[in-house]
Amino acid sequence: MSALPRRIIKETQRLMQEPVPGISAVPDESNARYFHVIVTGPEDSPFEGGLFKLELFLPEDYPMSAPKVRFITKIYHPNIDRLGRICLDILKDKWSPALQIRTVLLSIQALLSAPNPDDPLANDVAELWKVNEVEAIRNAKEWTRKYAMEN
Amino acid sequence: MEQFEQLLTCAICLDRYRNPKLLPCQHSFCMEPCMDGLVDYVRRQVKCPECRAEHRIPYQGVQGFPTNVTLQRFLELHIEITGELPDPTSGQTMKRCSVCSEKSYVTMCGHCDKEVCADCKGAHMDILRREIARINSQVRRALHRLQDMLALVERNMLALQTNCNSVSEEVEEIHSRLTKALKDRTEFLQSELDRYLTTEVKNLAQLKENLELEIANISSNCDLADEHMQNENVEWDDLELMDAKEIFLRTVEFIRNFETETTDYTRRVRFVMSHDPNTLVLNVAGYGELSINMPHPVIQSLQPPGPGLMRSKSDHRLASQYRGEDRGYDRSPYDADPLQGRVSPLGGRKFGERPRERTDVNSGTRYGGRNDRDYGDEYDPDNRQSARSRIRARFRHGAGDAADSDSETHGGRSVRFNESHAPPVKEREKVLDTEDVAKGPLSGITRLLDSPRVMKKLLDSNVKKTKKENEPAPPLPAQNQKNPIVRKTSATPVTPPVTQRQVSEDDEIARIKKQNKTAGSSSETVTREPVRPSSERVAALKQQSSSDQRTPERSPSRRPSAQEVTSSEADSDEEVAAIGSLRKTSTTASPPNTKPAPARRVGAEVGGAKPDAESTGTSPNRARTSSDVRRGSVSSTASNTASPATSTTTPTTKPFQSRFLGGGNRPSTTSTTATATPTKPTPPATKEEEEEDDDDEEETEEETETSSESEETESEEEAVAKKPAPAMEKTDIGPLLARAANARDTAPSSSTSNARDAFISSRYNNSSDSKDSTSYKPYGTKDETSTTGSKYGSASGRNRLSDDDIPSRFGTSTTTSSQPRARPSYETDSTPSRYGVSRETRAGSIGTSLGTETPSSYTSRFLNKSKSTAMVSPEDEKDESSLYSSGRTRFAALKDRKARLARSKSSHALMLDDEEFDDGPNSPYSPAAYMASKAAAASSSVSDFPSQLTRSRSSHTLKSRENSPDRSTAGYSSNASAGGGEKDGAALSSWARYLKSKYGNRGKDGAGSSSSGTATGATPTRRSSLHSRHGDDSDEESKNMYGSPNDPIQTTAQTGIGQVGTTPRSQYLQKRRLQFKIGSRGSEPGCFTWPRGIAVGPDNSIVVADSSNHRVQVFDSDGIFTKEFGSYGNAEGEFDCLAGVAVNRIGQFIIADRYNHRIQVMDPSGRFLRAFGSQGTADGKFNYPWGITTDALGFIYVCDKENHRVQVFQSDGTFVGKFGSMGNKAGQLEHPHYIAVSNTNRVIVSDSNNHRVQIFDVNGRVITSFGSEGSEEGQFKFPRGVAVDDQGFISVGDSGNNRIQIFTPDGQFLRAFGSWGSGDGEFKGLEGVAVMSNGNILVCDRENHRIQVF
User: Fold this and answer.
1) What are the backbone angles phi and psi of residue B435, rounded to the nearest 5°?
2) A Gene Ontology MF term for this entry (chain A) (predicted)?
């Protein structure tokens, strides 16, 4: 494996030194490009109180291409499917090299606060979210308590 | 501040901006790689990461965006304010890594000397680390060599001390003895003196008393007489007066007579010294000397090279020299380092330094200027740049590859290792300051532990990670780029320097190769790396594993090619031998005598020939055999006779023509001569002959026929002999015979008579020879069974001729071949059999149209024989047929001397023909002849013993003849009944004559040289036989020469003869003066670069293996360049540092293509014929074949140097056998370099690292060995070239002592000459040695790049 680009090293250092509130990202011991991420559920959201595990992988050509992020913890969210895949523009076509791990994670955290059922990934969830938001939020809270608050 | 810093940080790389480019959206990013990475090449757009604005990319790419100057100023300001060092990569631009071709910030890799990215660099350093480990282990393994050397040195010290002590004791003892002797003598003398004095004084005192008494008495008498007798006072009676008178008379008488010894007493005693006092004093003063054997008188003493490290010890001098040079070179460029006493392997650079150039200069210069130079100037010695630079260049090349392959080439590695860890040889930034470091005094290797840098590193590592002490962690590329990491285990460092040096030596070669190859860099690199190591082979530490590949290339230059020499020697030997024999013969035989003889011979020949023909008619098979036999005999005889003829220069030319003409004419003559009474003799003769044969020797088989033949001839002779006196007059021959008879009768005393005698003797010899040949038939038969077609077949003819001592397999083979030959020729004159071939060849050489003639000549011969009576006539015929005046003259005046001479010539010619036929192929030029001659030699060896006997007998008989021509001696009976019969009967039967004529010379020779033999009678000494043999050879050669006047050999041979009139021994004793020299350093024709092997071709050409020019050069015998062939490579006809050359009898070049581990055979024009062998240790494989030679039968002997053995091949490359193994016992070899084979089939090998010369028989059994390490006479230091002449005298190129030593055939030291230097007669590193047919010794003076001829 080729050496770690300076940028990744720097980002990692900064993540360690100046962690973002509510977010922790720790590189894997064996792979500096693989991060174990934990995001806390934003306040005033159905996910509040939950600790959501994600995995984040920096591809070879990072930062020219977006990191790959996936929820490990199950979550009831219209933009996150059952496999944990995230529908987020900056992780796709809106990716910019100027973004960083921390910004990505912040964006994800923000996504939790503001689900966007108009651009769904999990259709059933989005449907419910549009049709019966209360029900959806209750489900979300349920899931959060069920999956994200076990420990 | 933080924000300020943030403003200076590129959003993409999160580093400080490097070359910030401003997008139209006013966002700035680093140009590389950030902006580069943003480019959408499809749409030629850049999307700003910050604002996502899309911008068209300018035409020239992202560089086209304006630089954000403001930002840059801020950056600079920031640096000033904070004092922060710029980011290491700032100011750098990204380049493609030349290894992985990724774009990144590249740095120079010391390992491969390329710009590589950090990743690759790390990988390279890993490689280096591994290499170091490996090399280190090698060093460890090889370290014992140094330890051994240490032990050796210690032992030497002890030995030296004991030696000196013993010597001083010896001196003391001598001193005491001398003083005691002096004292004793002095005391003795003094006491003697005293004694003498006392006695003498006593005597004198007594005398004095007596005298006084006498005086008193007499005076009283006088007084008394005065007083009383003169007057008459007293009465005296007469008696009293008478008494008184008597008394006075007596007194008077007494006084008169009395004489005391009046001698001078002042010098009565003298001290006489038995020796002149001065000399005595001198003798005493210089009563002894210390003879100190300086192993390397010239160069070596001051600088003991690390012998273990050198490739071979023999090279150590060179190495030291080289080192010297190297140093010199190093100095100039690196004068800056005054502190460096020795150039360390790092080349003036301190350990871990970056190469200097690098620091100050851009790499471009390096590559441009330096490299060019390196490559271009390789050969220019003056221009040499520091060896180091070259090395570097090499490394660079190699380095590139290194990344890819962990290949095991050591040499390269070692160097590399230096580079990477401790930065490469080239100048680097100082990593380790090692000025004060202890260095190995011999190798100049620094002690790593002493290097502050290393120490620091180790310390650091200790502090940080104790674990990693052993293995210093590779520096993180990013962090440590500045400081290459030097940590290594302390042991490792040692190796690299050594290797480097070695490498430097080899560099030249390697370069040369490179030049040659000019191959692609990548592929090349691989090869190169190996190459380097090879050079280092000498040093030997690393080489072992990788060495194989490398060695070939590098080593060549250094190593002389012994093979060539040997081969050349071998060839030359034969020729030389022939010449030598000629000489001998010339010396022995008196020309005048010989001349007359030939004439007769001719007759004899003719006579002899006929019988064969007849016999053949009756019983073809037998006849053949018999004829063969005869031929053999004849040839031998002819050779013998020929030799005398040769001795006389004049006759030689004529004989040719006469020969041929004679041959052509003969047949006709037979008819004409028929009158002579050809048939008559036979019937009776046969009977007689048979009887004779029985008497002569045991071989009865052929006998009937052979005997009939020989008998016939004999009978003829006899008949002639019987008739002769009467008959002589009748036939033309008659007169001659008569003469001869007369001569015999009258004159043993007269020269003519002598000549006759000689002839007769020769005859006898012939007969004996024939018998011998018959006796050998058994062999012949065997041979027949064996493949007739073998090349050696030609040789078979010779077998008969030669009486060599060697019973080798070759002998048998030769014999066999000969027979087949003989048959065809006999049966049909025109048969295309070898005879024919040989004839043709001969004819070709001669230039006359003998092809047809020759066959006829055969027949004619026989015919002549049969016509024995007609013998004379055949001669005449010959003459007639020949345009020669001689023939005419003969006719005109048979009785005239001229006629005689002419005849003799003609006869000679005939004889020559016979010989040639027998020998056929003898003429050196024609390949067949060449081979045949060789074969003859071989065969001679086989037949030796008997032949010797016969010869001795014959000589004996001859002698007896001379003494009493008429009577048949016992010797006769033994040898040739026929001969005896002849003698008895007419003494001059045609056969006899023939024999005489042929063997006359020989007889002489035999008589002369083997007088002892005759004395001994039945047991002739080997010497004599040898002589005679030589004589034969010489004869043959001389004939050949004569036969082909144009032949270069001729002149040489003649000159040789002229020069050599004396024995080879004396000749060798006179050797020392340089005759001429060839060449100088260079690659043009006539120049050499490390010439190694040398050989002498059959035409006396000088063939040199111009090793590092990868070619063979050929010169004529005067050293004029004639041709060259070969170039660098491993394809057919290409060489890689060839070492040995040999030329076989047919002029093919056999070359030891050293680094290609194969033998190549080229035709006489230098075209590739075949190659065989490859690298390995199995049979037929080689490891650096070096010396090479061939023997009489064409077998190829190769010194398989690194396999420590000699391999033998057939001339087609078929493996025959091998002998020798690594060791120093008898029969073992260590780095055999050169080889030679004598004409007695003794295989002489220079067992270089055992400092001796070993002699084997052809089956690989040790016959003897001589020499030991040292510089005394008869001792060697790494002997290389060996050569042997026809006499068996051995010339050895004593490389380490820079001298040529000459030994007798039994290994006794004869002479030495030469010393170190570059003047005439001085050497620097000897390689091959060869001996020309005229006795000149050719020496490859390697480091002087020339050939010297002595």
Assistant:
1) -60, -40
2) ATP binding
What is the rounded CA–CA span in Å between residue B1286 and residue B1096? 13
Measured distance CA(B1200)–CA(B1178) in Å, rounded: 11
Q: Do A6 and B13 touch (CB under 8 A)?
A: yes
A6/B478 Cβ within 8 A: yes
Asked if residue B86 has pLDDT above 90, the reply is: no
pTM of the model: 0.31
Average pLDDT of the residues in B937-964 = 41
The larger pLDDT score, comparing residue A70 to residue B1028, is at A70
Given a contact cutoff of 8 angstroms between Cβ atoms, the answer to whether B722 and B708 are in contact is: no
Q: Which residue has the tokens 């080689």?
A: B1182
Q: pLDDT digit string (tens) for B789-798?
A: 333 333 333 3
- Nearest residue on chain B to A7, alpha-carbon basis: B13
Q: According to the model, what pLDDT value does residue A3 have?
A: 67
Smallest Cβ–Cβ distance between A97 and the set B49, B477, B478 belongs to B49
B1017, B955 in Cβ contact below 8 A? no
Q: CB atoms < 10 A from the CB of B287, how many? A: 11
Beta strands B1326-1331 and B1337-1341 are antiparallel
Among the ranges A103-117, B249-263, B517-531, B694-708, which has the highest mean pLDDT value? A103-117
Rounded to the nearest 5°, which phi and psi values hold at B1006?
A: -55, -45
Q: Is B769 left (phi over 0), alpha (psi -120 to 50) or beta?
A: alpha
H or E stretch at B1280:
strand B1279-1284
- pLDDT tens-place string over residues B249-298: 888 888 887 776 556 677 677 777 777 778 878 877 777 777 776 655 44
Confidence at A120, pLDDT banded by 50, 70, 90: confident
Q: Which amino acid is at B56?
A: R
What is the distance of C-alpha B1196 from the center of its chain?
Answer: 16
Q: What value does the mean pLDDT take over residues B376-384?
A: 42
> How far, in Å, are B593, B723, B981, B996, B1155 from residue B676 at the CA level?
27, 12, 20, 20, 68
* A:B CB pairs within 8 Å: 43
Which of B1161, B1023, B1107 has its CA nearest to residue B1327?
B1107
For the segment B325-346, the average pLDDT, to the nearest whole number, is 42
Question: Domain ranges in chain A?
Answer: 6-147
What's the CATH fold of domain A6-147?
Answer: Ubiquitin Conjugating Enzyme (3.10.110)
pLDDT at B920 over 70: no
Q: Taking the CB of residue B909, how many other CB atoms lie within 10 A of it?
A: 42
Q: What tokens appear for B722 in the block?
A: 């019987």
Q: How far apart are CA B391 and CA B398, in angstroms?
A: 10
Q: Computed from CA positions of residues B424, B429, B431, B434, in that sequence, does the dihedral angle turn out positive or negative?
A: positive
Asked if A63 and B477 come within 8 Å (Cβ–Cβ), the reply is no
Q: What radius of gyration, in Å, describes the C-alpha atoms of chain A?
A: 16
Query: CA B752, CA B742: separation in Å to the nearest integer?
Result: 9
Across the interface, do A96 and B119 touch by the CB < 8 Å criterion? no
The span from the CA of B289 to the CA of B585, in Å, is 45
The tokens of B656 are what?
A: 């040719």
Q: Above 60 in pLDDT, residue B1332?
A: yes
Nearest CA in chain B to A1: B119
Select the residue of A64, A99, A100 nearest B37 (Cβ to Cβ).
Answer: A64
The CA radius of gyration of chain B, in Å to the nearest whole number, is: 45
pLDDT above 80 for A137: yes
Neighbouring CB atoms inside 10 A of A113's CB total 14
Neighbours of B300 (CB within 10 A): 18
Helix (H, G, I), strand (E, B) or coil at B1190: strand
Which residue of B lies nearest to A94 if distances are taken between CA atoms?
Answer: B52
Measured between alpha carbons, how far is B1280 from B1244 in angstroms, rounded to an integer?
Answer: 11
Distances (CA, A) of B13 to B1, B95, B661: 20, 17, 104
